[in-house]
Amino acid sequence: MSTGERVVAFAPGRVNLIGDHTDYTGGFAMPMTVGLGTEASFQPDPSAPAIEVTSSLEGEPGRIPLSIPAQPLELAMVLPEWARYVGAVVAVVRPTSGGKAEVSSDLPVGAGLSSSAALEVALALALGAEETGRELALTCQRAEQLATGVKTGILDQLAIVSGRAGHAMLLDCGTLGVRYVEVPTDELEFVVVDSGVRRSVSETAYGLREAECAEAARLLGPLRHVSPRQVDGIADHVIRRRARHVVSENARVLAFAGMLERAELEEAGRLLDESHRSLAIDFEVSVPELDELVTWLQGLPGVLGARLTGAGFGGCALALARPGVLGRRLGTRRHWVVAPGGGARRC
Ligand code: ADP
Ligand code: MG
Questions:
Q1: What are phi and psi of 288, to 5 degrees?
Q2: Which atom of ligand 1 is nearest to the CA of 114?
Q3: Whether the predicted pLDDT of 199 surpasses 90
Q4: Which atom of ligand 1 lies closest to the CA of 113?
């Protein structure tokens, strides 16, 4: 039995500073990668017809046949559930050899730091994906959609492949363009605080929100080109509110990028507060625990702004704060002070 060389890859998690539920409408978002992440290793065995996979976070291993079809219905049969992501990556990367894959991660799962995309990207690189940059992001987005059965956007995967130390990224999810913005880390701190509420993309109303935005775009055209006045003209009050979130959030992302560049931090903080209001009221993706946490954070001295981050329905809040003011206040509450890290890579 001949075995090939072991391949190891790392993919960071990401925190979205602003711009949630804009990516799947081709809008704007501003994430940065973080120091936490997922490592995947692959030891090929050309005689093996499947990939045996273990995860440091899961008790039960998975076994994915190399011939697994790239079909959501087939992937939905894979057990244990977490291995569906592995099955989907195998289906889109199509490694030529079976073998043993090991995954380990220090990212919280289902908390909005994108453990799922970190898993996809690290594994795709370990299994020998030849693409890099935005092509790799698109491949892994396809894997996420296959694994969850939801038309998820490109934000997570594009952020994770593009990360650059010291920088946040202004992502144009329509053109897949990336503009890097330096983060003035000596003047501010980004703190991610866990609400403790867990959710998974396929169990939430994510798919419904995607469909509501598609309906708004059917009425008015691509939402990134739509004005607030046009939104006011939508008759259906639910679709109108969903569109109002997307249109106003796109404008906030662009404004936030400029403020970060000019280190106008008080103003940038206020945009985070507005973003939360819009996600909670117009887009209805918050939950009481997150609203309470965000309101508490917003009231603390030295906190410039706070919002839910990620898809919502649970997960984490993000606070923009003056350095060092928050740690003490948070006590035993699970939190991470995050600094902009690098991008995904083979090790
Ligand atoms: P998020 O991406 O915000 O962490 P998701 O609901 O999108 O939340 O993805 C979480 C799911 O991804 C988990 O339920 C699990 O199935 C899978 N997952 C992510 N990281 C790992 C890992 N290291 N090991 C096993 N499964 C993982
Ligand atoms: Mg995810």
A1: -55, -40
A2: 2
A3: no
A4: 3
Q: Ligand 1 center to residue 109 CA distance, Å? A: 5
Spatial CB neighbours of 262, under 8 Å, sequence gap ≥ 6: none
Q: Is the CB of 16 under 6 A from ligand 1?
A: no
Q: Which helix (H) or strand (E) holds 269?
A: helix 265-277
* Element at 128 (helix H, strand E): none
- The partner residues of 45 in beta bridges, in order of sequence, read 98
* Domains of the chain: residue spans and CATH: 7-181 (3.30.230.10)
CA distance linking residue 236 with residue 216, whole number of Å: 10
Phi first, then psi: give them for residue 306, nearest 5 degrees: -155, 150
The confidence score (pLDDT) of residue 202 equals 62
The response to whether residue 162 sits with its C-beta less than 6 Å from ligand 1 reads no
Looking at residue 280, the DSSP 8-state letter turns out to be I
Count Cβ neighbours within 10 Å for each residue of 285-316 and write b for 16 or more, e otherwise. Answer: bbbeebbebbeebbeeeebbbbbbbbbbbbbb
pLDDT digits (tens, 9 = 90+) for 299-319: 999 999 999 998 899 999 999
Span 33-55, pLDDT tens digits: 999 999 999 999 999 999 999 99
Rounded Cα distance between 146 and 87, Å, is 9
Q: Whose CA is closest to 307, among 320, 294, 322?
A: 294
Question: To test ligand 1's pocket by mutation, which of 119, 120, 308 has the most ligand atoms within 8 angstroms of CB?
Answer: 119
Question: Distance between CA 208 and CA 190 in Å, rounded?
Answer: 30
